């Protein structure tokens, strides 16, 4: 997951390959609760691992439910069989509507039935998301529920600690047009108290019916068959009891699939995009996003558990669509609209206003930043794409809303090759923590569009420290080119070669097929950890020796170019800016006095428990400087367009901030 403040996406050109989707959030949280309420043990496979499922799991554990993490995405849940071993608890539910609503219903009923008392809270946004209709329904049933903040919103107190008589005779009336999660919550909870038939009556048109279908299908898997009269009346039969199905697989998230369906529709591709984990047999309503994407031009084929997508019509065709049946995935259509041949209208989306953020306002604001013309109404949005010269490089604010972050990433395919900034990319953790990794695994940018920041300089100037900090702050790849020379020297010595010109051809051959790999800080040669051996002072001196040999340098070029991967690269060494990435958009030449550098190295070695004499280090360092700067092939020199940075008087953080400010100055996002 990218936990950086922002993630800059270079302009993307094409796509192709296969992605496996994480488990559906709606299904994961429903089956977790159902398994917890059932009699018996349930093993759940392919469960989504995200913020929302984590708060659900934590809540169930607090309530006394046995949760065993089996590794991977599997969890074994020991059900409570409708009993409450813990009668009073405080539950924090983050911003997870799929935890807040059903737990409110289940715990309100169980608290009344068995004498419990529970407090449910979330983050500030959760306290702005309405829950009044559900509370009204629970109060009709005789459950004591108190608002602890504003009326109509969490936080809530459920129960008083005493039992309360439930009134199950009269039908429970719920409004259908606010959130289908209220009805889902009641459907999940009422079987716990079904000593008689219980009726739910929906008042008005029911929105998001597909989510109710998921609920009904999952209830059936756990042994409860709800009778339904149209979408107006639901009857939970007397004597309903949850029983574990033993084990259950969670299908991939169909809403998450929408980004890759859209990608297949937008990107040029030879092989197309394949999505694994969700297919045409999905029980999730958002699978019908596929039809909307097809209407815009996507060519989609599929099987029960996978989808294949290719670009069809181009530009995409503008559509006018009632999106009530695909409220979440419809956000993806709003971004696809940027590539359409006219104005796209998405209607009947009022529920967007009470989601993670006011999604109509958010989408309108961010689409406008990109140059689109947008009209928004209380329950619709109309998007007209930018003119060819109207696209702008935008910094997309994401409102702590995973779907805003994910769908806007598709704007990186803009025809004018502008980069795109996604703020707070970690908000995708709600449903798809590795979304950007998955995206980068199937999209391609032109190499020259992938930014490289070069940090060159002499030994102990702080290159490695600065480069790794920059990479961490920007979410970029890191190339420690010195390590490649160090490993080459190590491999050469192991092969019985000298590090002199006489063995140049043999060392170059070794370097060309160097079996080197990086695992965090560790450097592996043929899978063997050689970090400590190559990081020694002798290792540095040996690297300096082989680095003089032109054939060795040439042999390592391709390997170094291979590090230029999405979303960007920070490269440290001696010739990053002069030879390897001469067209890099930012080059820094780092330096500090030889004495300062020797002191730094001395401290570094002492802190690692390696004894060293300052005078020896200074002499070695000067010897290395001399060899590195005077060699014929790619000597250590600042590139003409490098910015010099003498950090003799600067701390590490100050240097990092300075270079980040230089980088920001070269990005096109200001004022976006
Ligand atoms: N700006 C700085 N001020 C003080 N010490 C620094 C600075 N940058 C790096 N150092 C320290 O100097 C030592 C050498 O830094 P390193 O990044 O390994 O240098 P290089 O990669 O250039 O050889 C490290 O112990 C590091 O913490
Ligand atoms: N791009 C590079 C990187 C390193 N080298 C050579 C020259 C250096 O003295 C050695 C070791 O480099 P490294 O960056 O690991 O060494 P320091 O951390 O600066 O001490 O490799 C090079 O010639 N070109």
TrEMBL record:
GO terms for molecular function: 3-phosphoshikimate 1-carboxyvinyltransferase activity; ATP binding; CMP kinase activity; dCMP kinase activity. PROSITE patterns: EPSP_SYNTHASE_1, EPSP_SYNTHASE_2. Residues 17-439 form the Enolpyruvate transferase domain. Its EC number is 2.5.1.19, 2.7.4.25. ATP binds at residues 457-465. The active site is at residue 328. It catalyses: CMP + ATP = CDP + ADP; 3-phosphoshikimate + phosphoenolpyruvate = 5-O-(1-carboxyvinyl)-3-phosphoshikimate + phosphate; dCMP + ATP = dCDP + ADP. 3-phosphoshikimate binds at residues 25-26, 30, 179-181, 208, 328, 355. Gene3D superfamilies: Enolpyruvate transferase domain, P-loop containing nucleotide triphosphate hydrolases. Pathway: Metabolic intermediate biosynthesis; chorismate biosynthesis; chorismate from D-erythrose 4-phosphate and phosphoenolpyruvate: step 6/7. Monomer. HAMAP family: Cytidyl_kinase_type1, EPSP_synth. Catalyzes the transfer of the enolpyruvyl moiety of phosphoenolpyruvate (PEP) to the 5-hydroxyl of shikimate-3-phosphate (S3P) to produce enolpyruvyl shikimate-3-phosphate and inorganic phosphate. CDD domains: CMPK, EPSP_synthase. It comes from the Bacteria. It comes from Malikia granosa. Belongs to the EPSP synthase family. Belongs to the cytidylate kinase family. Type 1 subfamily. PANTHER family: AROM/DEHYDROQUINATE SYNTHASE, PENTAFUNCTIONAL AROM POLYPEPTIDE. GO terms for cellular component: cytoplasm. It is an enzyme of class 2 (transferase). This is Multifunctional fusion protein. Residues 453-661 form the Cytidylate kinase domain. It is found in: Cytoplasm. Phosphoenolpyruvate binds at residues 25, 97, 129, 181, 359, 403, 430.
């Amino acid at each position: 997951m990218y936990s950086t403040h922002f993630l800059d996406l270079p302009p993307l050109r094409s796509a192709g390959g296969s992605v496996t989707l994480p488990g559906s959030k709606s299904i994961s949280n429903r089956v977790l609760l159902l398994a917890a309420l059932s009699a018996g043990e349930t093993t759940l496979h392919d469960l989504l691992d995200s913020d929302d499922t984590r708060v659900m799991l934590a809540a169930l554990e607090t309530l006394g439910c046995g949760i065993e993490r089996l590794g991977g995405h599997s969890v074994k849940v020991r059900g409570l069989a409708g009993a409450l071993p813990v009668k009073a608890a405080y539950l924090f539910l983050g911003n997870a509507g799929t935890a807040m609503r059903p737990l409110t219903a289940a715990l309100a009923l169980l608290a009344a039935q068995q004498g419990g008392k529970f407090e449910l809270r979330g983050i500030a946004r959760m306290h702005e998301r309405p829950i009044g209709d559900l509370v009204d329904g629970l109060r009709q049933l005789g459950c004591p529920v108190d608002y602890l903040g504003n009326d109509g919103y969490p936080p809530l107190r459920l129960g008083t600690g005493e039992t309360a008589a439930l009134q199950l005779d009269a039908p429970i009336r719920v409004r259908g047009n606010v959130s289908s999660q209220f009805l889902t919550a009641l459907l999940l909870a009422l079987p716990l108290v079904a000593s008689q038939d219980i009726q739910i009556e929906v008042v008005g048109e029911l929105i998001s019916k597909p989510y109710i279908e998921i609920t009904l299908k999952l209830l059936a898997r756990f042994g409860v068959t709800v009778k339904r009269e149209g979408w107006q009346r639901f009857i939970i039969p007397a004597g309903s009891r949850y029983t574990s199905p033993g084990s259950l697989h969670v299908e991939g998230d169909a809403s998450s699939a929408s980004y890759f369906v859209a990608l297949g529709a937008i990107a040029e591709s030879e092989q197309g995009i394949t999505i694994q984990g969700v297919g045409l047999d999905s029980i999730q309503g958002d699978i019908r996003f596929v039809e909307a994407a097809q209407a815009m031009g996507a060519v989609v084929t599929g099987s029960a558990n996978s989808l294949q997508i290719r670009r069809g019509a181009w530009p995409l065709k503008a559509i006018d669509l009632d999106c009530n049946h695909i409220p979440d995935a419809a956000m993806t259509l709003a971004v696809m609209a940027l590539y359409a041949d006219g104005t796209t209208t998405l209607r009947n989306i009022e529920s967007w206003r009470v989601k993670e953020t006011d999604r109509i306002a958010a989408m309108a604001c961010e689409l406008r930043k990109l140059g689109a013309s947008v009209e928004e109404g209380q329950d619709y949005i109309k998007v007209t794409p930018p003119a060819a010269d109207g696209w702008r490089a935008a910094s997309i604010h994401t409102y702590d809303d995973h779907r805003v972050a994910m769908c806007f990433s598709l704007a990186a395919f803009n025809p004018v090759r502008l980069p795109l900034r996604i703020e707070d990319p970690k908000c995708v953790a709600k449903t798809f923590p590795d979304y950007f990794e998955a995206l980068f695994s199937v999209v391609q940018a032109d190499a020259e569009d992938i930014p490289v920041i070069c940090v060159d300089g002499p030994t102990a100037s702080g290159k490695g420290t600065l480069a790794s900090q920059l990479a961490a702050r920007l979410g970029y790849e890191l190339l420690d080119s010195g390590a490649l020379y160090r490993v080459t020297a190590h491999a050469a010595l192991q092969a019985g070669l000298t590090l002199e010109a006489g063995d140049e051809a043999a060392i170059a051959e070794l370097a060309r097929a160097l079996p080197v790999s990086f695992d965090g800080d560790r450097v592996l040669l043929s899978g063997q950890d050689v970090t400590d051996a190559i990081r020694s002072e002798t290792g540095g001196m040996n690297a300096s020796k082989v680095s003089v040999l032109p054939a060795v340098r040439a042999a390592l070029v391709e390997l170094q170019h291979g590090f230029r991967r999405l979303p960007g690269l920070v490269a440290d060494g001696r010739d990053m800016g002069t030879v390897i990435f001469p067209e890099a958009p930012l080059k820094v030449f780092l330096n500090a006095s030889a004495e300062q550098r020797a002191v730094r190295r001395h401290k570094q070695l002492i802190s690692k428990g390696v004894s060293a004499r300052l005078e020896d280090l200074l002499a070695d360092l000067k010897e290395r400087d001399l060899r590195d700067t005077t060699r014929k092939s790619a000597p250590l020199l600042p590139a003409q367009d490098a910015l010099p940075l003498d950090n003799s008087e600067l701390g590490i953080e100050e240097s990092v901030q300075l270079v980040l400010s230089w980088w920001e100055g070269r990005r096109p996002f200001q004022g976006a």
